[in-house]
Structure formats: structure tokens, C-alpha cells
User: Which sequence fits this backbone?
């Protein structure tokens, strides 16, 4: 296997939903020639709704773990994509190209939201991320 030409790090706060979905989609859409990672400033756990909506796309996140951004070696990253919308995005130090895709956090503690509401929120975020990565793929080629 040849070394990837580019390394992308997707960042959000908890590394539980948006950045995890971006990592999974990135592997599928960008393929082996791009190294894809994700991390967060306050990692928690991979959100079960993120796992479920990615499974709908044939992408398995069950082996993914939330990772702190400070465990990522800056020398292994060429591009950082932050996915925060309403919260403060994590900072990644290093000489990298930076992109910001403000995608609202689909996770919510609102008890008024049903399971179907939550799945709809996660599908919306997943589809937005998919569109951004597909567009980004053209820039990498």
C-alpha cells in the first residue's frame, strides 16, 4: 500500500457525531490515498444515533472511539476541517490548511425530541457532511 498523499483531520467538540460521521464518510468517499482522522476538544463517546445513521449508508462506526485533539501529532496532518456551528471549535496547532464547515450539532438533550426527530437531525448532518466531502474530493484531485 502506498502512503497517502494528504492527511485530513475532522474536528468538533465531543468527537461523537459530526467528526465521527465525517471520518467514516471520508474513508469511503476519499479512499485510500487520503488519510482521514477525527478528534475533539472534549471527547466523549460515539453517539449511538451517529452509528445508526451511518449504518444506513453501509458505514460501520462501532469500532470508532472519541479521541482528544491533543493526541494527534501535528506532523501527521495536512488539512483540518472544523465542523462546529454554534459552539466554540477546537484549536489545532500546526501549519495546516484550515476549512470550516459550520454544521449544527445533531445531538440534543431535549426530552421533547422523539427518536425519529433525533434520527432526522443526524441524517441531516450526515447528508450535509457527505455533500461537503464530495465537493472537497474534487478540490483534492
Assistant:
Amino acid at each position: 500500500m502506498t502512503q497517502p498523499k494528504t492527511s485530513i483531520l475532522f474536528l468538533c467538540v465531543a468527537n461523537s457525531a459530526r467528526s465521527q460521521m465525517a471520518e467514516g464518510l471520508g474513508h469511503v468517499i476519499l479512499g485510500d490515498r487520503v488519510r482521514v482522522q477525527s478528534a475533539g476538544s472534549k471527547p466523549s463517546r460515539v453517539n449511538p444515533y451517529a452509528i445508526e445513521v451511518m449504518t444506513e449508508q453501509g458505514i460501520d462506526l462501532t469500532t470508532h472511539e472519541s479521541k482528544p485533539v491533543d493526541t494527534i501529532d501535528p506532523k501527521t496532518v495536512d488539512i483540518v476541517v472544523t465542523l462546529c456551528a454554534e459552539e466554540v471549535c477546537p484549536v489545532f496547532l500546526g501549519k495546516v490548511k484550515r476549512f470550516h464547515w459550520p454544521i449544527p450539532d445533531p445531538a440534543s438533550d431535549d426530552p421533547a425530541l422523539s427518536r425519529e426527530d433525533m434520527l432526522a437531525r443526524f441524517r441531516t448532518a450526515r447528508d450535509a457532511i457527505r455533500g461537503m466531502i464530495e465537493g472537497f474530493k474534487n478540490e483534492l484531485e
Remarks:
- DSSP finds three helices and four strands in the chain.
- The CA atoms of residues 10 and 76 lie 13 Å apart.
